Automatic annotation (TrEMBL):
Annotated keywords: DNA damage, DNA repair, DNA replication, Ligase, Magnesium, Manganese, Metal-binding, NAD, Zinc
Origin superkingdom: Bacteria
A GO molecular function held by the record: DNA ligase (NAD+) activity
Organism of provenance: Pokkaliibacter plantistimulans
Functional summary from the UniProt entry: DNA ligase that catalyzes the formation of phosphodiester linkages between 5'-phosphoryl and 3'-hydroxyl groups in double-stranded DNA using NAD as a coenzyme and as the energy source for the reaction. It is essential for DNA replication and repair of damaged DNA.
Signal peptide from the UniProt entry: none
Protein name, as recorded: DNA ligase
NCBIfam families (alphabetical): dnlj, PRK07956.1
Enzyme Commission code: 6.5.1.2
Mitochondrion found in the keyword field: no
InterPro entries membership: BRCT_dom, BRCT_dom_sf, DisA/LigA_HHH, DNA_ligase, DNA_ligase_AS, DNA_ligase_CS, DNAligase_adenylation, DNAligase_N
Length: 684
């Protein structure tokens, strides 16, 4: 009995997927190349004869398609977190000790870790629905990334359709896209023969290949992908530990690093580190360290997260590579806070896969410690394979013409006096917003995604706005006119109108983002959020004394002083007031008066999920108000969720809550909760 075209096509696809798995994932081809090519040719012929049966997850659809005009931004279904780093054996011992203490383990109990190479590539998120790949995205800032689906579809190690019978309804897989050393070297050889610019290292090559607007170019780059984690699994059971998770990934058709190993305790971690360090140069891909993850998933859940990193995993970086070069000069750069930083201008040298021509000297104390002079021979190290640093001076090679380095008495950007507080290592320009260097950097910080999030206002445009005196403070951004923008480079009527719309949109923000955007010294995103949640409104923050500010979780004396001093400066208050006058606004609450006798907030220890549409307040504002009451607001429902705040239109989160027996509360309850604690759902 002959097969129908539909059945024949599906049979061929399944055969090819299985052969792809054995070839690319298992490295164990089951048929000769010519037989594989014959299957693919037969499938292509049938799909051409029956175009109505062509699907996007067919093995024939990896060659790339029509070029894109740009990449769109997408939100990850769950944040892609970063990892804390360990640079020494002591750091690893401290990591294991913290885990044992948090889990309250007896001294005789060993912690098992899933150990894996830390690939030097590009992190990606792969989203599947009903077994088919529907979206791939870069890590981006962890919450938002770029949609690179068309390019990832060309990577043969990424299954377009999952294998096996137990395929979940929705699945998000995390992995690392890399270019092998051999592919990288071959690409650069071809580039040199064609008088084209070669890539600096395999990581840059992988990144450049993934960000090609023409996916047909990506398809020619022979990229590889190793998967190692899940961000989402709906319609299936989570594996009980990390090693089981990796095995499940293999069963679904993903490529998992063959070097991954289960190790026990700090001794096992150390032994694995020594083994991989010795084999580093023999691997077919670049690695910059190792990753150790607590194997048991229940322990991972108990350990939880801190800031944007899990407590149950760490990256043990390899020692940085070093090289010797000479200091040709020293320049002094002015940061957005006025810090004057000496930067060594070096004779270019290749270190850790990149050409280094600059290295920070941090401050005059560091210069004195190193005893460095212009003209010296120095060893350069890329700390953690990232930041170029001067490690030491080769004094025996010091030339006669070497000359000492001294801090300038006046700002190199504006000429204002340079000040250095007693017992402080950092010298600062006293010019404030009158200093062009600080003004530009402060504005760039103000408009960044995590701050006011003004799309389209990039560094070059800010430079133009400041250089032409159109903008001298953040409030001036909201006074810009179309006619003024049209006179700037690359600013046509359409792009100018789009920018003005983005600026106007940014007026509606949150108190936390506004505080962060002001660029107060040492006040990062997490601190700004904590301060905003604690006080609830701007006026309370302005009036707070240092002692009151220190009551905010994780705010110490130094940061409290910076915040206090900032809001005591007339120029800073003028900037804040002008921003409010031009329409920047957010929803405010009241200063925290809701602690009980034990010092706890009403929702301390509770995890709440918000879903659906709320009538009296936006979901973002509802989350902020819940956090002000002490709750932890999560993005997904689990057995540990305390309750769910659900409005009309609630979907899968509500269904999951009901399935897990998690209590569901409505907006009426939420408003009553706010009222009983002296909070309002809306405010000026």
């Amino acid at each position: 009995m002959s097969l129908t075209p539909s059945d024949a096509i599906e049979s061929l696809r399944q055969q090819i997927r299985e052969h792809d798995y054995h070839y690319y994932v298992e490295d164990d081809p089951r048929i000769p190349d010519q037989d594989y090519d014959a299957l693919m040719l037969q499938l292509k012929k049938l799909e051409q004869e029956h175009p109505e049966l062509l699907t996007t997850d067919s093995p024939t659809q990896r060659v790339g398609g029509v070029p894109l005009s740009s990449f769109s931004t997408v939100q990850h279904v769950a944040p892609m977190l970063s990892l804390d780093n360990a640079f020494s054996e002591q750091d690893m011992q401290d990591f294991v000790r913290r885990i044992r203490e948090r889990l309250k383990l007896p001294a005789t109990s060993a912690v098992e870790f899933a150990a894996e190479p830390k690939l030097d590539g590009i992190a990606v998120s792969l989203l599947y629905e009903k077994g088919s790949l529907i979206r791939a995205a870069t890590r981006g800032d962890g919450e938002f990334g770029e949609d690179i689906t068309a390019n990832v579809r060309t990577i043969t190690a990424v299954p377009l359709r999952l294998l096996g019978g137990s395929v979940p309804l929705r699945l998000e897989v995390r992995g690392e896209v890399v270019m092998s050393k051999a592919t990288f070297e071959a690409f650069n050889r071809r580039a040199v023969t064609k008088n084209e610019k070669p890539f600096v290292n395999p990581r840059n090559a992988a990144a450049g290949s993934l960000r090609q607007l023409d996916s047909r170019v990506t398809a020619k780059r022979s990229l590889d992908c190793y998967c190692y984690a899940l961000g989402l699994l709906e319609g299936g059971e989570w594996p009980e530990d990390q090693m089981a998770l990796l095995e499940r990934l293999r069963q679904w058709g993903f490529k998992v690093n063959p070097e991954i190993k289960l190790v026990s305790g700090i001794d096992g971690c150390s032994a694995y580190y020594s083994q991989m360090m010795a084999r580093r140069d023999q691997l077919k891909y670049e690695i910059d360290g190792l990753v150790f993850k607590v194997n048991r998933r229940d322990w991972q859940s108990e350990l939880g997260y801190v800031s944007r990193a899990p407590r149950w995993a760490i990256a043990h970086k390899f020692p940085a590579q070093e090289a010797m070069t000479t200091v040709e000069s020293v320049e002094f750069q002015v940061g957005r806070t006025g810090a004057i930083t000496p930067v060594a201008k070096l004779k270019p040298v290749f270190v850790g896969g990149v050409t280094v021509s600059n290295a920070t000297l941090h401050n005059m104390d560091e210069i004195d410690r190193l005893g460095i002079q212009v003209g010296d021979f120095v060893f350069i190290r890329r700390a953690g394979d990232v930041i170029p640093q001067v490690v030491r001076v080769v004094l025996e090679k010091r030339p006669d013409a070497a000359r000492p380095i001294s801090m300038p008495t006046h700002c190199p950007a504006c000429g204002s006096d340079v000040e250095r507080e007693e017992q402080q290592a950092v010298a600062r320009c006293s010019g404030g917003l009158s200093c062009p260097a600080q003004r530009k950097e402060a504005l760039k910080h103000f408009v960044s995604r995590r701050a006011m999030d003004i799309d389209g206002l990039g560094d070059k445009l800010i430079d133009q706005l400041v250089d032409t005196n159109l903008v001298q403070s953040p409030a001036d951004l909201y006074m810009l006119q179309l006619s003024s923008l049209l006179g700037l480079e690359r600013m046509g009527e359409k792009s100018s109108a789009k920018l003005l719309k983005a600026i106007d949109k940014s007026k509606s923000t949150t108190l936390a983002k506004f505080i962060y955007a002001l660029g107060i010294r040492e006040v990062g995103e997490s601190t700004a959020k904590a301060v905003a949640s604690f006080f609830g409104n701007l006026q309370s923050i302005k009036e707070a004394e240092i002692e009151r500010l220190q009551e905010v979780p994780d705010v110490g004396t130094v940061v409290a002083k910076h915040i206090h001093v900032f809001f005591r400066q007339p120029d800073n208050l003028d900037v804040v007031n002008r921003l409010i006058e031009v329409g920047v606004h957010w929803t405010e609450g009241q200063p925290s008066r809701t602690k009980d006798a034990s010092g706890s907030l009403p929702l301390t220890g509770q995890t709440v999920v918000v879903t659906g549409t709320l009538e009296s307040v936006s979901r973002d504002d509802a989350k902020a108000l819940l956090e002000q009451l002490g709750a932890k607001v999560a993005g997904s429902v689990s057995a540990k969720t305390s309750w769910v705040l659900a409005g009309p239109g609630a979907g899968s989160k509500l269904s999951k809550a009901e399935a897990l027996g998690v209590e569901v509360r409505d907006e009426k309850y939420f408003l009553s909760l706010l009222e009983s604690n002296g909070l309002q759902p809306t405010g000026d």
